[in-house]
């Protein structure tokens, strides 16, 4: 569950706080678990909602949330083959809170835009816009890493 919290947090200490808050909620609601699904899935949902609630309290609303109606389109992956999971997660953690939340909920957790909009209290267009902007920002960061690797490779060949 720490990995879930880490995806929503800006840094490790914040993820640890989110994990603690999430498990407090799990233990408070343990009596409500009906043994009808996996315990891990139930705990994961609570962790995701705890992270979202924490970020809401931290005034995610103050961050600029794109309200334009940007159409979602398929993006060709730009990630180099040698970009590992840790490096990719580090790039995701650099995203602004709103972008990071929507990206995590859609791309990693598998929620639909209607569900994300309901969770975050925004409209579906905002969710789509945030996802599109997050993807563009990640692609830009990956392109910068690619350029840096090429530059370093060219200077080491000399």
What does this structure look like?
With 158 residues, this protein is mostly helical. 67% of the residues lie in helices and 0% in strands. The protein has seven helices and no strands. Helix 2 crosses helix 3 (39-57) and helix 6 (113-120) crosses helix 7 (124-156).
CATH level-4 homologous superfamily of the largest domain: Winged helix-like DNA-binding domain superfamily/Winged helix DNA-binding domain
CATH class of the largest domain: Mainly Alpha
Rg calc = 18 Å
Mean pLDDT: 79
Number of discrete domains: 2
Strand content: under 5%
Question: Portion of residues in helices?
Answer: 55-70%
In total, the number of strands is 0
Which ranges are low-confidence, i.e. pLDDT below 50, for 5 or more consecutive residues? 60-80
Shape: globular
Order of helices and strands: HHHHHHH
Cα separation of the termini: 46 Å
CATH architectural group of the largest domain = Orthogonal Bundle
Number of helices, counting only DSSP H or I runs of 4 residues or more: 7
* Protein structure class: mainly alpha
Fold-level CATH name of the largest domain: Arc Repressor Mutant, subunit A
Main β-sheet description: none
